[in-house]
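Friendly challenge for the regulars: who can give me the structure tokens for this chain first? No prize, just bragging rights.
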Amino acid sequence: MTTSPFLSRVARCDDCGVYLCRGTNQGRPVLSCPQCRQTIGRTRLDPYLVQRLLTERGDEPLGDSTVRHRWNAAGTNESTQRDILLTQLEEIRIRRGTVGRYFDDERVLLKWHPAAGR
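First reply, four minutes later:
Bragging rights claimed.
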């Protein structure tokens, strides 16, 4: 099974500071730390990040348009989506959480680049 490159070498482990690696666990896409072995499922993480990006940064200028407009124009092109995310994202760290199938948004620490004009 191939995994999405959307967060490849983007998210870091909050404990170790190393980049999380993409992979699968029981056929589901995950990010995992190569040092401490913590994992987080991508099935809920990716849509959560997109929602946060568009809610918190959607109106930010990006070139001659906005983040939201560029995102919508990207369609399903993950490479373009990744590029858009990286224009806004200063850092994403994933904290260790309770093992289980439930997504815990408090594990996801986002830091955006400063907003334009501030």
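DSSP finds three helices and eight strands in the chain. The mean pLDDT is 91. Your move, everyone else.
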